Amino acid sequence: MFSLLQSEWFKLRKSNVIYILFAGPLIGLLIGLLGNDNVFPDEVNQWGGSLLMMNLTYALLFLPLITGVLAATVCRYEHQAGGWKQLLSLPVTRGKVFITKYLLLIFLVLAIQLLYLGSVFSVGVIHGYTDSFPMDIVWKSILGGWIATFPLVALQLWMSLLFKSFAAPFAVNVIFTLPTILAINSEKFGAYYPWAQPVLMMNVGEDSNNVFFIPWEQLITVVGGSFLLFFIGGYIYFRQKAV
Amino acid sequence: MIGKLIRTDFMKIRRKGIWFLAILGPFGVVALQMVNYGLRKDWFIQQDTFSWFYYVRNVSAFTPFALILGIVILASFMASIENETNAWKQLIALPVSKWSVYLSKYTTIGLLLVFATCLLTVFSLGFGVLLGLGGEIPYLDLIRYCFYPLFAALPILGLQLWIALVFQNQGFPITIGVFGVIMSYMAYFLPDWLIWKWPSLDNQWDEPLLNVCMGLVVGLGIYLFGMLDFIRRDVK
Amino acid sequence: MEYIVETKKITKRFGKEYAVEALDLKIPKGEIYGFLGPNGAGKTTTIRMLLGLMRPTLGTIQIFGKDLKRERIEVLKKVGSLVENPSYYPHLTAYENLEALRKIYGISKKRIDEVLEIVSLLDVANKKVKGFSLGMKQRLGIAASLLNSPELLILDEPTNGLDPSGIIEIRNLIKSLSVEEGMTILISSHLLSEIDQIANNVGIISKGKLIFQDSIDVMRKQSQNKISFKVDDCEKVWRFLISSGIKADFSEDTISMLEQNDENVATVVRLLVENGFSIYRVEEEKRSLEDTFLQMTAEERVI
């Protein structure tokens, strides 16, 4: 399993995935610097205000969309020139290949999240914030956003295995991501919409006592449920895929 | 010649679900308003904004995203159809000029977008009538707010088509596309000279027609640049 | 002789590497020209330049007496090609694939059935190419190259992926196209046996340079068997033979002659013995066409 992961990383390292990883923090910087941060009253922590604004666009659109690009990237080599038949005729099970690709993807998303954290910090430094850095809130937000992408990554991996082109899984991704813009405006619907979870989990909310910014029940049912659905669906599809 | 090429390009997009996307896009934009008005109809009435004027502007708030995402997806699709078995070498070895191959791809996407925009006009009109919005139907306003973003987005079409055709790895153009979408989401904060702001029809002079003109002029410039680069390159 | 394709010093450089260097290709009208060379010698790069897919770094290409750079479209109207792996649109049927090309040529729809018939794909015409075997895809590629009834047909390794009966079929097809339609055909291969069976002209490329170009008969002549003599004093023997009016070559410790009939060999032996030369060995050196080819490409020597 570990050797598979190493081999996957090796293949990926030679591709342009690094540029894609850096797109995250770049977007963060852009939003943070372009956006207007004077809309918040003085008593709000400067970091909190900045984070609130940056997270909204970042988690609403960028994070869900980029999972699709990453998923298509990790399947690119195999779709080209019959790579699947070569990979799957090695002494590996298909299940392991699937899980490895999935693990690799969520690590990549984690890397994006951490780089984004770096850009949050940079924005604050550039703006010259003097308030204390709200470590706990920031971590909650970064890790929460990461966990919320688990089901999205699973679906995108499934779609990327299904379609050869980049455009098709991306189209699926777009179809599900765009309604989030409305979903988050509705408390009833937003809580149940898997693509709205990254923004809900990254959104710096009222100081709740939960570990994350959404209730545990919601995390387990919506994020956990959709994760299981997409992961198992993709897993079964891949097991039966004719290569 | 160009007509023949466009016909073959339309043939090549068969069974790829592209027409479905061209219908889904405008439908999605109007569907968002169905949800919006479904949930908040009373609020609109209360605010005294339950009218065609505000409705048309509400619809057009989402048009730029759908448009840009559509451009990104279509451009990447057109490229991957030829990239998949490297059909470029077959296509360019036909008695066709390279500029006409490029123009044909551009026009094919353009026509699909015009089709989607017509649908957007029809769908918005239909839902507006269904809602029973007050006042006379402002046909001209409606058409304007559906088609202006399309013209203003031509520079983005030129850019996306160029990078999709030039880069083998479609991850790159799509990542740029994601950038573009996010920029357009923040259009309000962007400086007027950024092309991703233009489809929002917003500018400091509050003159949507300016975005249309810039879209046409700069769009032509980017188109020519991309085409010349495409001609210059060897076919692998 | 009338040349359909004539290149002047075409060169293609990628960065610092020369993929093709100063190639003077001459393809006579109506002939089957075998373009031969090991993998990576520059065959496909040359063919890409002939089709205008790549621009030569230097040099000019004339096809049908027209400059390719200036009249590319006019030229390509009368050229059919299949480069490397066949290109196709997997989600379209065989018929639709050809239809997409036919539209551009603007020829009659009847021609699609004709070419499908020629490569015997008529019964799978309405199946998606996705499910085709490699051989079927290759046939489809050949069908596509014949669609515009070209005057010049360029086939890059056309028998790749075909089974033996398929190879024979294609070979016969190529011959009949040449004989019946008077088509000029450029066919590339890394296998001499392949070219030997159909081509009348050969060009051999090695490391980007054209090291041989002539009719295959000339190449066969060079591959003739040789008789070699090992003798005590080569130079002396050679002088003696020349002065006796017998053609021979000498190198270090052997004297060699192009193949002679038995009678002639006997005469030479007798002459040498009678004049007091010692003959250590008389050997027949067999050289097949394949040997000649291998030797040419290995030594990269201009013959």
* Radius of gyration of chain B (Å): 19 Å
Q: Which pair of chains has the greatest number of interface residues, and how are they split between the two chains?
A: A-B, 37 and 35 residues
Oligomeric composition of the shown chains: heterotrimer
For the record, give the distance between the C-alpha atoms at the N and C termini of chain A, rounded to a whole number: 21 Å
Please give the domain count of chain A. Answer: 1
Question: How many beta-strand elements of chain B?
Answer: 0
Q: What is the mean predicted local confidence, pLDDT of chain A?
A: 85
Strand content of chain B: under 5%
Helix content of chain B: over 70%
Low-confidence stretches of chain B: none
Structural domain tally of chain B: 1
Largest sheet of chain A: none
Uncertain runs of chain A with pLDDT below 50, 5 residues or more?
A: none
Number of E strands of chain A = 0
Topology, element by element:
The complex is a heterotrimer of chains A (243), B (236) and C (303).
Chain A: H1 2-13, H2 17-34, H3 46-79, H4 83-88, H5 94-127, H6 135-148, H7 150-162, H8 167-177, H9 180-183, H10 187-190, H11 197-202, H12 216-240
Helix pairs in contact in A: 1-5, 2-3, 2-5, 3-5, 3-7, 3-8, 5-6, 5-7, 5-12, 7-8, 7-12
Chain B: H1 2-12, H2 18-46, H3 52-83, H4 88-92, H5 98-131, H6 139-152, H7 154-166, H8 171-185, H9 208-232
Helix pairs in contact in B: 1-5, 2-3, 2-5, 3-5, 3-6, 3-7, 3-8, 5-6, 5-9, 6-9, 7-8, 7-9
Chain C: E1 3-14, E2 17-23, E3 26-28, E4 32-36, H1 43-50, E5 58-63, E6 66-67, H2 72-76, E7 79-82, H3 94-105, H4 110-118, H5 134-146, E8 152-156, H6 164-181, E9 184-189, H7 192-198, E10 201-206, E11 209-215, H8 216-222, E12 226-231, H9 234-243, E13 249-251, E14 254-258, H10 262-274, E15 279-285, H11 289-299
Parallel strand pairs in C: 4-9, 4-10, 7-8, 8-9
Antiparallel strand pairs in C: 1-2, 1-3, 1-5, 5-6, 10-11, 12-14, 12-15, 13-14
